[in-house]
Amino acid sequence: MFQKTVETLAKTATKDLKHFKGIHAHIIKSHHNTFIYNNMIRGYVKTNSPMPAILCYLDMLNYGLIANNYTFPPLIKACTLIVHSMKCTGCLVHAHVVKFGFYDDPFVASTLIEFYSSVLDMATARRLFDGVAKRDVVLWTSMVDGYGKVGDVESARALFDEMPDRNVVSWSAMMAGYSRVSDFREVLCLFRQMQEACVKPNESVLVSAATACSHLGALAQGQWVHSYAKLQYSLESNAILATAIVDMHAKCGCIEAALSVFEGIARKDGGAWNAIISGVAMNSGARKSIELFNRMVAIGAQPNETTFVTILTACTHSGLVEKGLSLFKQMETVYNVKPRSEHFACIVDLLARSGMLEDAEKFIEEHMGEFDSRDANVWGALLGACRVHGKVEVGNRIWKKLASAGFVDCGIYMTLYNMYKEAGWEIEAKSVRRMLIEMGLKKKPGCSLIEVNGVVDEFIAGDLSHPKAGEISETLISLFNTMNFLILI
């Protein structure tokens, strides 16, 4: 009866941690067996209490009890939770796994792989994987997920393609890996392959697909994801999935649809508020985004760093200088959010775009101790404004400061070159161009995306690899000629 009580509490430990600890104290006095200790360890991990879980294991060993294959998966998860402060603990548990002979158990191995991927040690994870004779789908998926988490999508995909069996979690792990490296076209490609394989997508897959549609502007596919999610899952109760749908609609320019989904979310977390505030601001609705921000704080939701980047950017693009400065001052004093370099860059951009270059420069000098003085966003915002407002002398003075500090950033050099070129400062422009060549700095080429019949095509500046590049070029020339003819008449 007592063992059954412990097992039940372990499954619902998050609801009654105090009671659970009381049961643990009772175990020490009167009950000692591996089954109960295993449940105690699992219960502590479920309450996000890794240290008590590890101490519970040590207590178990002190009583001479032998660990089994059910002991190690939750214990290793506890080590993963504290890995950034006590990596050696996980390695010691791994040694115990080997000592007790469970190194080739698929469940134990999969949690060890998760542990080593969290410390970016995929070489050890791979040796573990290769050492297991009977690999189940969980083990394969753990390895794919591990490679994805460290950004090695090539190795992840190679394993994914080799998998004898895949479940929805396997597809989700691979799609998440591509999403982490911003290969959103491949995310949607996998999503289509998954549908062709008749695998029902789970919520995680739909979040990855919606996020990919957001970045690619693939509205048709995004609407399909929305419809499917609405039919199969409750968007009102799933804030993460609903937020991804809100973000997708907003980035595709469908702000009304985004607002509709947002208003339907029962419990709006910070991510949902950030998505709608950002989406409204992106669609030239600065005042509306400020209204949403006020609603957010009025109901007690806590804005974070991302919220303020979004709202300050909205103020910048709408020229709301006083409001932006007021919000910046309230960040730390009212909302307890410490400004970071991104927020300083927003204020510099806000002042500079409004032609207040001297104020922007003064702002940087006053806050120089608050952030890295070489931050490209801050200096890029100021130099960009100097170019727009034709303040070449101010831009030249700022550049001299950066040059003396050994500043190297391709974007800054390009802004400087264009500023000099447009102002007729040919000698200075040639000097900057020469420095770009000598340092081997190259501007990242621009790209555009277009969705046709549910397929997204990407076009990169100067790239003629598209199979219909010739026809596209001829069509563009024809359009330009037509426009010029219409202008003339």
TrEMBL record:
Pfam families for the chain: PPR (PF01535), PPR_long (PF17177)
Organism: Stephania japonica
NCBIfam families: PPR
Domain PROP1-like PPR: 281-372
Keywords assigned by UniProt, alphabetized: Repeat
Cell inner membrane is among the record's keywords: no
PPR repeats: 136-170, 269-303
PROSITE patterns on file: PPR
Statement: the UniProt record of this protein carries the keyword Repeat: yes
Protein known as: PROP1-like PPR domain-containing protein
Gene3D superfamilies linked to this entry: Tetratricopeptide repeat domain (1.25.40.10)
Record's signal peptide: none
Biological process (GO), any one: RNA modification
Source organism superkingdom: Eukaryota
UniProt GO molecular function: RNA binding
